[in-house]
Write a structure and sequence with these properties.
heterodimer; A: 6-stranded mixed sheet; B: alpha/beta; Rossmann fold; 7 helices; about 20% strand; binds guanosine-5'-triphosphate; binds adenosine-5'-diphosphate; binds magnesium ion
C-alpha cells in the first residue's frame, strides 16, 4: 500500500485534544508556550507531554524487515509426546488447519500470534526468517506482523463504514483517499453479496458483511504479512474470492476450519490431533476435483437461497 | 511495588491474576492491595486464587486522595509480610485520576470495548503510565484494535503497549517479566506523585448537600455558559 504521509496541523491536533484555540495556523510551540501551566494541569497534561504527543502522531510506523518465512518448530502433544513436524510457511501460501473441536487448532494459531518460544503449553517455537525474534521485538511485533480474524470478533465502534476506513487508514499513516474507500467498498460488497453503503453504521452490518469488510480491510489496510483466521465459515461470504484477495497481497494465511471448501482450498493442510500436528497433507488433482464439485454445490445452494429470498418457486434441478 | 490502574471493568483483576500466575511459577511472593469506593468482589477473587490481599474502601472520600494517604502504610505492610512484589489495583473513577508515583512501575489497563475516544478522555492515569495494557482484543476486529492502540500511542507515546487477553492470559508472561525487573525500594518516603491529583476543597467536601450560590465556598470553578 502506498503510504503517503499525512501532516496534522498543530491547530487540529490541539483542538482535537479538547483545547480551545482562537487563532489558526500557529506553530505548535507558539500555542504551547502561550498556555498557562495551570490550565494544562487542569487538562491533565503539560507542555513536554503535548510536544511528545504531537511528534508521536507523525512518527512513521517502523518498517520491519520483510517476512520471507515462518518456521513452526514442533513441540509436544497433550500427553507430552514429541510433535513430529516442523512446518515452513512462505508468503502467498494458504495453509488450513483441521481437526476435531478441542484438538488444538486455536492453540496453534495462538502460538504463532504469540511468537511462542517454548513458553506455551505446546512448547512450540516460532521462527521468523529462520531466527527467533528477540524479546524486545516480541511486544511490538505481534501487531505489525499478524492480523487476526475470528468468529468472536465484532465491530463495536460507533462509526459508519466510511469513517471507520478513514480512521483505520489514518492510524496506519496511509493516505485515506476516496479511491481507497471506493476500492474497499467494492471488494467488501462483492464478498458479502448483500450490499451495504459507506453510510451504514458498523454495528448494523450483518455477520457476513462484517466478515467481508474485515477481510478486505486486512488485505488493503493491515501491513501485517501474516493472517490468522479462526473458524469464520458460517459468515456466508464468497470464500474463494476472499482467499484469492488475501493471497494476492502476498500474505501467509493460516486458517483453522471445519469447512471442507476452505480446507481444500489451501495448498497444504495440517491435521491436528491431541494438541499436535499429526499429519501434513498436500492437495492433489483428485482433491481439486472434489473441491470443484463442492463449489458447484455451494453455488447451487446460493442460487436457491437467493431465489427463495426473492419469493420465487424453486425450479432448478438439484 | 507496582501500581495498576484503569477504568472500571477494564480487566485489571484478570490481568493481575494472570500475571501473578506467571510469577508464582518462579516462587516470587506477591500481594495485592485493592483500592475501591464502595464495594468490590475482587478481594474474594484474589483470595480464591490463594493471593495475599488487602482491601481499602474510600467510601465518601476521593479515591485518589485515599490512595495516596494510605500507600506508604501499605508499602510498610508489604515489607513486614516479606512480599517481593506488592501490586496495587485501583479503578480510575473520574478520568482525572492520577495514581502513579515517580520511579514506581505504573500500569494502566484499558479495554478495546471502551470506545476509540476513550484514550483521549483518560488523563494522567494513562498519559503517565510506563506500561499500557490493552484487553479484550479477542472480541473486536483487527482494525479496531489497531485504531485503539494508535489512539493510546497518541496520548502516551512513551509507554510500552501490551495486548493481553484477560481470560486466557495470553500475553501475561510478558508483563510478568516486566514486573520482575521493576525497581525495588526500601520505602516510599520522599517519593513523588507523577502528576497532581484532582483537587477539591469546597463546602461539598465537608458534607454540604444544599444547592445554590450561597453554599459555594472554597475551591470552586464555574462553567462558561
Ligand atoms: N473477552 C474478554 N473479556 C475480558 C478480558 N479481560 C477481562 N475480561 C472480562 O471483563 C470483566 C471485567 O474484568 P475485571 O478483571 O474484573 O475488571 P477490573 O478492571 O478488575 O474491574 P473493577 O475492579 O471492578 O474495576 C470480567 O468479566 C472479565 O472476565 C479479555 O481480554 N477478553
Ligand atoms: N500440545 C498441547 N499441550 C497442552 N495443552 C494443549 C495442547 N494443544 C492444545 N492444548 C489445549 O487444549 C485446549 C483446546 O484447544 P483449542 O486450540 O481451543 O482446540 P480447537 O481450536 O481445535 O477446538 C486448549 O485449552 C489448549 O490450550
Ligand atoms: Mg478453536
Ligand atoms: Mg478488579
Amino acid at each position: 500500500m502506498e503510504a503517503e504521509k499525512r501532516l496534522v496541523s498543530p491547530y487540529d491536533f490541539l483542538t482535537d485534544m479538547g483545547f480551545e484555540l482562537f487563532e489558526k495556523n500557529q506553530s505548535l510551540d507558539s500555542y504551547v508556550e502561550a498556555m498557562n501551566p495551570d490550565y494544562l494541569e487542569d487538562m491533565g497534561t503539560n507542555r513536554e507531554m503535548l510536544r511528545a504527543n504531537y511528534h508521536a502522531i507523525h512518527k512513521k510506523p517502523e518498517v520491519d524487515e520483510k517476512v520471507k518465512s515462518i518456521l513452526i518448530k514442533g513441540g509436544v502433544n497433550k500427553d507430552g509426546e514429541k510433535e513430529g513436524f516442523d512446518i515452513l510457511l512462505k508468503p502467498g501460501e494458504i495453509v488450513s488447519i483441521v481437526g476435531p473441536t478441542g484438538s488444538g487448532k486455536s492453540r496453534l494459531l495462538a502460538d504463532i500470534e504469540w511468537l511462542a518460544q517454548g513458553d506455551t503449553p505446546t512448547g512450540r517455537h516460532i521462527l521468523i526468517n529462520g531466527v527467533q525474534p528477540d524479546e524486545d521485538k516480541r511486544y511490538s511485533m505481534d501487531e505489525k506482523l499478524i492480523s487476526q480474524l475470528s468468529q468472536n470478533m465484532n465491530f463495536v465502534m460507533d462509526a459508519n463504514v466510511e469513517e471507520f476506513i478513514r480512521m483505520h487508514a489514518h492510524s496506519r499513516n496511509i493516505n485515506e483517499s476516496d479511491l481507497l474507500i471506493e476500492k474497499v467498498m467494492q471488494w467488501a460488497n462483492d464478498l458479502a453479496g448483500e450490499p451495504f453503503t459507506k453510510e451504514t453504521p458498523l454495528t448494523a452490518l450483518s455477520g457476513g458483511q462484517s466478515r467481508a469488510l474485515m477481510i478486505v480491510d486486512v488485505a488493503f489496510l493491515c501491513q501485517s504479512p501474516i493472517v490468522l483466521i479462526d473458524e469464520i465459515e458460517n459468515a456466508g461470504i464468497d470464500r474463494r474470492q476472499a482467499m484469492a484477495l488475501l493471497v494476492s497481497t502476498e500474505k501467509i494465511i493460516l486458517i483453522a476450519t471445519h469447512d471442507p471448501v476452505l480446507a481444500l482450498m489451501a495448498n497444504r493442510r495440517l491435521v491436528i490431533k491431541n494438541g499436535a500436528i499429526d499429519q501434513v497433507i498436500e492437495g492433489d488433482e483428485h482433491e481439486k476435483r472434489v473441491l470443484g464439485d463442492l463449489e458447484k454445490m455451494a453455488e447451487k445452494m446460493l442460487s436457491v437461497r437467493n431465489a427463495l429470498r426473492m419469493g420465487n418457486k424453486i425450479t432448478l434441478k438439484v | 511495588m507496582i501500581t495498576v490502574s484503569g477504568p472500571p471493568s477494564s480487566g485489571k483483576t484478570s490481568i493481575i491474576e494472570k500475571t501473578i500466575k506467571e510469577l508464582k511459577k518462579k516462587e516470587i511472593e506477591i500481594a495485592v492491595i485493592k483500592f475501591d469506593c464502595l464495594s468490590t468482589a475482587d478481594e474474594m477473587i484474589y483470595q480464591k486464587k490463594g493471593i495475599k490481599t488487602k482491601l481499602g474502601l474510600s467510601g465518601s472520600l476521593c479515591p485518589d486522595h485515599y490512595f495516596v494517604n494510605n500507600i506508604d502504610a501499605c508499602f510498610r505492610w508489604g515489607r513486614q509480610e516479606n512480599v517481593d512484589i506488592l501490586i496495587t489495583e485501583s479503578a480510575g473513577l473520574c478520568n482525572r485520576c492520577s495514581p502513579h508515583i515517580k520511579e514506581v512501575l505504573s500500569v494502566c489497563v484499558i479495554d478495546n470495548l471502551s470506545g476509540y475516544h476513550t484514550p483521549k478522555k483518560i488523563g494522567p492515569m494513562l498519559k503517565f503510565a510506563d506500561i499500557v495494557v490493552i484487553t479484550k482484543g479477542d472480541i473486536v476486529s483487527q482494525a479496531e484494535r489497531e485504531v485503539f492502540a494508535y489512539n493510546v500511542k497518541k496520548v502516551n507515546p512513551h509507554a510500552k503497549i501490551l495486548h493481553i487477553n484477560g481470560i486466557t492470559g495470553q500475553g501475561a508472561a510478558q508483563l510478568s517479566k516486566l514486573f520482575e525487573i521493576a525497581e525495588d525500594y526500601d520505602s516510599l518516603d520522599e517519593k513523588k506523585l507523577r502528576f497532581t491529583m484532582p483537587a477539591a476543597l469546597c463546602s461539598y467536601c465537608l458534607g454540604e448537600t444544599m444547592i445554590g450560590k450561597d453554599y459555594h465556598i472554597g475551591n470552586v470553578k464555574n462553567m462558561n455558559l
